[in-house]
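Sync notes, pocket subgroup
Present: LS, DG
LS reminded everyone that the earlier model was apo-only. Rerun requested with glycinamide ribonucleotide included. Inputs:
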Amino acid sequence: MARLRLGVLVSGNGTNLQAILDAARAGRIDADVGVVISNQPGAYALSRAESAGVKAVSLPHKGFASREAFDVALADELRRERVEWVVLAGFMRLLTPGFLAAFPQRVINIHPSLLPAFPGTHAIRDALAYGVRVTGCTVHLVDEGVDTGPILDQRAVRVEDGDSEQTLAERMHRAEHELYVDVLARLAQGRLRLPAAQG
Ligand code: GAR
């Protein structure tokens, strides 16, 4: 089976990207990361891509007149690199319907909560504030809503007494890295059950 070609979108530190790069290099995912694109020019994730010998592209959204225009440039860059699946790894921007139509049912995201609980940008903080004793992470297909797409897999993370946002985030990250690599490994081998395409 041919190796899957991934494009990874990032905005920040990129620990999930690192887990994916490491797993691909070690042969634990039958996939190659063709390009890493960040909408934040200073994102450390770009350095991680460069260190791994992967093309790193800084595409600051601030340089575009509209969300649509940014997403057209984003899709063009991914197509140029012959990307088959778009993997969001801490990419903190909503994608437009136009972008999703360019990669139908082929955009995947990781979110630090057990969706549908705690969607949005502060999922770990929100889970702590609510007082849940178990939270976790979710890998899902991206649709036009905020963290609403079909769920592919989840992993639970216990909230410990005295957890701060930072200590919980550290355990969350470890769970995310395992979950994302596992889902991508199954995806690349055609072992992941995908929801039927809509429409
Ligand atoms: C991860 O925890 C990811 O789940 C979250 O951003 C973090 C990125 O960390 N994404 C979202 O909250 C998306 N709604 P990383 O840059 O170290 O991979």
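DG: The beta strands are 4-10, 31-38, 55-58, 85-88, 107-111, 134-141, 151-158.
LS: The chain has a mean pLDDT of 96.
Action: DG to write up.
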